[in-house]
């Protein structure tokens, strides 16, 4: 299952955004308002939203100022969240979030809407950092 947010414009350089996102504790500021738990542990963070199980994301890949890939820490759920950054000029950037999950069709049907809402909330909150 693949999901993507619309490309957003951010009034910051790609370097500033990249540095913000690679400091995982900053993801707490991007979380939807229904967050119930958020904990950073090294190169991963754990979060829980109302009515959802806890999820741990691990920093899997970094391409300075252009790409950050977070992946599921659990082998039970195989997915990644990629954040792509592109420079417009010295003080403006574009960003897009891509979700790629390997779920059976029944699971995909159940999680598509909550996941879409989740990555859209992250994207919307990223605009305002």
Topology:
Blueprint: E1 2-4, E2 8-10, H1 14-22, H2 27-30, E3 35-41, E4 44-49, E5 55-63, E6 67-72, E7 78-89, E8 92-102, H3 105-127
Antiparallel strand pairs: 1-8, 2-8, 3-4, 4-5, 5-6, 6-7, 7-8
Protein name: Carbon monoxide dehydrogenase subunit G
Helix content: 25-40%
- In whole angstroms, the N-to-C terminal distance is 28 Å
Tally the structural domains.
1
* Number of beta strands: 8
**CATH class group:** Alpha Beta
Which stretches are poorly predicted, pLDDT < 50 over at least 5 residues?
none
Mean pLDDT: 94
> How can the largest sheet be summarized?
8 strands, antiparallel
Q: Please state the structural category.
A: alpha+beta
Q: Count of DSSP helices?
A: 3
Rg result: 14 Å
CATH topology: Alpha-D-Glucose-1,6-Bisphosphate, Chain A, domain 4
CATH architecture: 2-Layer Sandwich
Supply the CATH superfamily name.
START domain
Looking at the structure, what is the overall shape?
globular
Protein name: Carbon monoxide dehydrogenase subunit G
Organism: Wenyingzhuangia heitensis
């Amino acid at each position: 299952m693949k999901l993507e947010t619309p490309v957003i414009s951010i009034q910051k350089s790609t370097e500033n955004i990249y540095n913000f996102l690679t400091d995982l504790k900053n993801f707490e500021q991007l979380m939807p308002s229904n967050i119930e738990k958020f904990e950073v542990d090294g190169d991963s963070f754990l979060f829980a939203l109302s009515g959802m199980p806890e999820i741990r994301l691990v920093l899997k890949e970094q391409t300075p100022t252009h790409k950050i890939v977070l992946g599921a820490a659990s082998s039970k759920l195989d997915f990644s969240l990629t954040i792509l950054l592109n420079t417009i000029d010295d003080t403006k950037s574009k960003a897009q979030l891509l979700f790629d999950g390997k779920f059976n069709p029944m699971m995909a049907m159940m999680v598509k809407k909550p996941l879409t809402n989740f990555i859209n909330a992250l994207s919307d909150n990223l605009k305002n950092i």
